[in-house]
Design goal:
With 377 residues, this protein is an alpha+beta fold. The protein contains eleven helices and ten strands. The protein has helices spanning 5-32, 106-111, 116-133, 137-142, 144-161, 178-268, 279-293, 311-317, 322-333, 337-348, 365-376; strands spanning 33-36, 40-46, 49-54, 57-60, 66-72, 76-86, 92-103, 164-176, 298-299, 302-303. Helix 3 runs antiparallel to helix 5 (144-161), helix 6 packs antiparallel against helix 9 (322-333) and helix 6 (178-268) runs parallel beside helix 11.
């Protein structure tokens, strides 16, 4: 009789073997196929030997004996840990930075350096300390771009051998010690107080200069007015004096005529019938008759115009020079408004003005007023 047990065992064995073969086939296919992303490259080694780079997409490699190493070809950001350094003027500072790098040659990055990120980080730390140590404190705080450029330049040569390109280096913070910060704050406060004092002094100086300029112009105008008034007053006094003299002369002549007439009246009252009259008395009688009849101011029935002053009198009282004198006074009193505005603007800007003030408040307006008055006179 036939025993079915061995047949069942054989079928089970074939099933297990078939399952193992299927699993082995699946694993083999999995090991043979590599999917590479678009921004990656992978280094391939077979039995430890470098065979090349796997490009983005699907790649087939020898199964079980191959290994791949992934490299990101995009720009990568790497933080440089905070570093303590001593500047050239012996001031302790702490600084940190950020390095932007990219893998340009994955083969060099795989074969020339064990871990390019670690290598670049350590190199950036030492370079940062060296660059800061070669600069003074003020330069480390003010010249960030120079620090960045120097660090990048120092990193370029060794990283090129690793197939890495350092695209940029940015120093984020440079902080001096607490004692140095306090000293800097005190220095900054003192500098600001000094600037405030200087600005205040300059403001007071400009105000004083402008006030002095205004007083000067006011004094000049007032002096010109007083001068014009005095000249006109003196001219009036001269004319009045001459007129009084002419009037006195005319009154003296009339008094002589009156006296002569009184003498004639006294002679007429005498007992003598013969009179001897001097020629001067006859002339006085004629002039008195003309004065009474008004014939001394009329000729042929026409009224005569009043006669003006003779040349000697006009020259004495300066009648012909009045308009010229007044014109000179008005010209001297005229103010060039545009010139005054330019001088005021120059004084406000702190530049030397046209009259030599030079932006100082030591000019004596009274002295300049006396000189201006003397010249105009």
């Amino acid at each position: 009789m036939y025993d079915p047990v061995p047949l069942q065992i054989s079928a089970l064995g074939f099933s297990i073997v078939g399952l193992l073969v299927l699993v082995l086939a699946i694993v083999t296919i999995w090991q043979m196929v590599r999917f590479v992303d678009a921004y990656d490259k992978q280094a391939l080694t077979v039995f430890g030997e470098y065979r090349g780079l796997l490009e983005p997409g699907i790649n087939f490699i020898p199964p079980f004996v191959s290994r791949t190493y992934r490299f990101d070809m995009r720009t990568q950001t790497m933080d440089v840990p905070r570093q303590e350094a001593i500047t050239r003027d012996n001031s302790p500072v702490t600084a940190d930075a950020v390095v932007y790098l990219r893998v340009m040659d994955a083969k060099k990055a795989f074969l020339e350096v064990e871990d390019y990120k670690t290598a670049v980080s350590n190199l950036a730390q030492t370079t940062l300390r060296a660059v800061i140590g070669d600069m003074e404190l003020d330069d480390t705080l003010n010249k960030r771009q120079e620090i960045n450029a120097r660090i990048r330049k120092e990193l370029d040569e060794p990283t090129d051998e690793w197939g890495i390109r350092v695209e940029s280096v940015e120093v984020r913070e440079v902080n001096p010690s607490q004692e140095v910060q306090q000293a800097m704050e005190q220095q900054t406060g003192a500098e600001r107080r000094r600037r405030a004092t200087i600005l205040e002094a300059q403001g007071e100086r400009r105000s004083a200069v402008e006030k002095a300029e205004g007083d000067k112009q006011s004094n000049i105008i007032r002096a010109q007015g007083e001068k014009q008034s005095q000249i006109l007053e003196a001219q009036g006094d001269a004319i009045s004096t001459v007129l009084r003299a002419k009037s006195a002369e005319s009154m003296g002549e009339r008094a002589i005529i009156d006296k002569g007439m009184d003498t004639l009246e006294a002679i007429g009252r005498g007992e003598s019938t013969t009179f001897v009259l001097p020629q001067e008395l006859t002339s006085l009688v004629g002039r008195y008759g003309k004065h009474l009849t008004g014939s001394d101011v009329a000729t042929n029935g026409h009224q005569l115009d009043s006669q003006g002053f003779d040349a000697e009198t006009r020259e004495l009282i300066g009648l012909d020079d009045i308009k010229e004198i007044l014109g000179e006074i008005d010209k001297a009193a005229e103010m060039d408004v545009e010139e005054l505005e330019q001088q005021a603007k120059a004084v406000k800007d702190g530049a030397p003005n046209a009259d030599g003030a030079g932006g100082t408040v030591e000019d004596d307006p009274d002295t300049e007023l006396e000189e201006e008055t003397s010249v105009s006179s």
